[in-house]
Amino acid sequence: DAKTTQPPSMDCAEGRAANLPCNHSTISGNEYVYWYRQIHSQGPQYIIHGLKNNETNEMASLIITEDRKSSTLILPHATLRDTAVYYCIVRVALSGSARQLTFGSGTQLTVLP
Amino acid sequence: EAGVAQSPRYKIIEKRQSVAFWCNPISGHATLYWYQQILGQGPKLLIQFQNNGVVDDSQLPKDRFSAERLKGVDSTLKIQPAKLEDSAVYLCASSLEGIPTYEQYFGPGTRLTVT
How many C-beta neighbours within 10 Å does residue B51 have? Predict the structure, then answer.
């Protein structure tokens, strides 16, 4: 699985967009970009995933560069409840027996009032 | 839909004692995982089950850790004897089988403190 690089911490003002970067320069053509987050004292929670195209769901948007070497998770209107550690994970689709996730240290996002 | 259940939520033991954690996955999820999360780090996979069988236990310290999944539903993770470095949060997760999936569903975890 491709290795990812994320900043250890970021701050964001409440109500503003939070943009969390992730570098994955060694990503392979069949590898997806997944984002999970972990709120304090909870288990990780799936946010979004993408392969090539930008993706949006009710939680966030995922922007993947054309060369796929980096991506940005966007929380359009951050709230205090979005304070969490955000993990960017790059790997092939979770199928068959190969379903495990390899987590790095992630980015601690703090949303400030 | 009920989520992944884990118990206990907290456990404090002395080194060399034994401890067991329980996990009940989401109904119908054939794949179950146990992760260890040390403070300040991301979760690390310990063992993965598919139904009753072990798919991957390459990172499980088998001299002291054991896990089982009876009848392909609930699972128990045991540590015997515990060491100080086993202090961590133990997370259980589950996912659907049969199709490519992008989501694992995690329980709240059990925080273990070994003194």
Answer: 13
Type and span of the H or E element at B20: strand B19-24
Q: Which of A85, A82, A81, A61 is nearest to A72 (CA)?
A: A61
Q: How far apart are CA B55 and CA B60, in angstroms?
A: 12
Residues in chain A: 113
* Distances, alpha carbon A94 to alpha carbons A32, B59, B79, in Å: 9, 19, 28
Burial class (CB in 10 A: 0-12, 13-18, 19+), B78: middle
Contact A94 B44 (CB under 8 A): no
Yes or no, beta carbons of B31 and A99 under 8 Å apart: yes
Query: Looking only at Cα atoms, what is the longest distance across chain A?
Result: 44
Residue in chain A nearest B4 by alpha carbon = A43
Q: Distance between CA A10 and CA A47 in Å, rounded?
A: 18
Half-sphere exposure of A43 (CA within 13 A, CB side): 24
Is residue B14 a contact partner of residue B115, using CB atoms and an 8 Å limit?
A: yes
Q: pLDDT tens, A46-91?
A: 999 999 989 999 999 999 999 999 999 999 999 999 999 999 998 8
Picking from B41, B104, B109, the nearest residue to A101 by CB comes out as: B104
A7-50 confidence digits (pLDDT tens): 999 999 999 999 999 999 999 888 889 999 999 999 999 999 99
